[in-house]
Write a structure and sequence with these properties.
Elements (H helix, E strand, L loop, with lengths): L1 H14 L3 H8 L4 H33 L9 H24 L3 H10 L4 H23 L11
Helix pairs in contact: 1-2, 1-3, 2-3, 2-6, 3-5, 3-6, 4-5, 4-6
């Protein structure tokens, strides 16, 4: 049943973007179906984190009242990316290096407006889904690009 296959790809890509193309190829979906489901999965996590971000942050502060360190190696790198390329840089790095959840949390922490965040992540998600899916479908033994 294709709905179960689509759901598997969507769920895999909500957590780790590369999981979408890998599972789509393994399940025998076409590259277009895989790319669409991968983008949808990323966007589900982006939308949930974007609109639930403040509630999750309040919940975290409630159960972990100790303040976190402000300047760690990770936060310095995030600030450097933000200063150099803004939301476009974060969106571009999210599918490739960060996870959809991590990239969205980072953008929300910098105060990006929800509409802008969703638009940039959608564009980045579509581009990376096509690139990663086409690359993975070229691996011998997996479903071919024309199959």
């Amino acid at each position: 049943m294709p709905i179960a296959k689509y759901a598997s790809v969507i769920i895999a890509s909500t957590i780790k973007f590369l999981g979408g193309p890998l599972s789509g190829a393994a399940l025998g979906l076409s590259w277009l179906e895989t790319a669409l489901c991968t983008t949808l999965g990323m966007m589900i996590s982006v939308i949930v984190i974007t609109y639930a971000g403040s509630a999750l942050q309040a919940l975290r502060q409630r159960y972990n009242p100790t303040p976190t360190r402000l300047f760690t190696k990770r936060t310095r790198m995030a600030i450097r990316v933000w200063q150099r390329s803004g939301m476009a840089g974060i969106a571009l790095l999210t599918p490739a290096i960060l996870t959809p959840i991590g990239g969205t949390i980072l953008a929300v922490s910098f105060g990006v407006k929800p509409g802008r965040l969703i638009l940039y992540m959608l564009i980045s998600g579509i581009l990376w889904a096509i690139v990663q899916t086409l690359l993975i479908y070229q691996i011998p033994g997996l479903k071919g690009i024309m199959g």
